Amino acid sequence: MTVESVRPEAPVTPELLEPPFAGGGVPVLGHGWKLVRDPLSFMARLGSHGDVVRLRLGPKTVYAVTTPALTGAMALSNDYIIDGPLWESLEGLLGKEGVATANGPTHRRQRRTIQPAFRLDAIPAYGPIMEEEAHALTERWKPGETIDCTSESFRVAVRIAARCLLRGDFMDERAERLCVALATVFRGMYRRMVIPAGALYRLPLPANRKFNAALADLHLLVDEIVAERRASGQKPDDLLTALLEAKDDNGDPIGEQEIHDQVVAILTPGSETVASTIMWLLQVLAEHPEHADRVCAEVESVTGGRPVAFEDVRALRHTNNVVVEAMRLRPAVWILTRRAVRDTELGGYRIPAGADIVYSPYAIQRDPQSYADNLEFDPDRWLPDRVKSVPKHAMSPFSTGNRKCPSDHFSMAQLSLITAALATKYRFEQVSGSDDGTRVGITLRPHRLLLTPVPRS
Ligand code: HEM
Fold this sequence. Notes:
- The chain is 49% helix and 12% strand.
- The chain is α+β, with helices and mostly antiparallel strands.
- The strands form 4 sheets. A 5-stranded mixed β-sheet has the order 1-2-8-5-3.
- The chain binds protoporphyrin IX containing FE (HEM).
């Protein structure tokens, strides 16, 4: 027996691999030019390089995660937080103290404050407003006219969020101002994120002036809403009251800045995402008249011909499946980022502390390994017997884990209700000048969707 053969065995520590680099980078810019030029195809192709791959964005190495299982594992792990260039630029514009950008105990406390307003059992109280807004949307339109779906979708999304969550008579006029301010701010924010040329945005150019004015008006509006609620002495059971009465970890009232940033952090993600999804739903109703007809028939079978109501939504299976399928193919939130807070691993790959990580719900939800006929619009894939074949975390438009969107029930209720109201009143046709190609911004939406409503007789 040799001396070596009696040595105790070394503990088995799995060898962590360095993720492969994605191909196709160019000197200096790395993969950045591809990400700017055609981000959706670029993200969708990354999976062919590996489950975790490294990208070069200028001088930086960024990690991309490409499988449902690993994106789910990351979202559920404490090793990753909200941080990185995307969030820093959002904080600079929208405020540092809101729930969407906070981490750790502050984030947990803020989620506890806002969560009751979004709980499943809180949603029926918003039913009458959602109903009123869904029907008002269709009643604004005249048969045969051209509808600019971008402004109409934004309008209804902001009105529902603002009226449900920040109740008050003043909301109608304010909701209109919020629409204008948010649409401009989002456009400018995306530009500032993909082309981070700080000095350029300080020049007194018309586009910069418009952006700065819209941003200032957004912050002013929020201040006005908070001040008026305080002056009214009223405390309706809503999100704004919850924010005004919130206490910090020491039991003291939270500061003015945090109240302000919280309102901004809820209104801004809440309007752009819903508005983009409504645009895609309108596009789907126009492009797939057979599904629009099925939605109409389903709604009529449930309502017997009266206007659709919030209480009907639960029974509208196909309508709900149309909404889910539209969100699968065109998820409003198409890219998400995280930062590793410690050395860790994902799928056997080494992820160093401080690494910026990116993943795309768009790519995950279109992956042919998860979905048969992956690019087909097929709402029936969500029927109970077929849905079982969808891998875990392969459909996660609201994300998962501690950063999951608080508004999934709130959003799904209004989106189904709006789809039902639209499809029962009209058929839709795209008109000349309409462009339903995908515009990539902070969210995904059609470039310029113009429809004409044709009344159902
Ligand atoms: C179709 C509609 C919506 C979609 C697809 C959506 C999607 C998402 C996603 C994917 C996240 C997670 C971001 C991350 O993991 O980094 C998120 C977070 C968030 N969403 Fe939504 N959202 C929608 C509507 C809304 C609405 C209506 C509101 C509020 C009125 C809202 C408020 C928020 C907030 C406050 C967060 C931050 C949560 C946190 O970090 O703890 N969202 N949303």
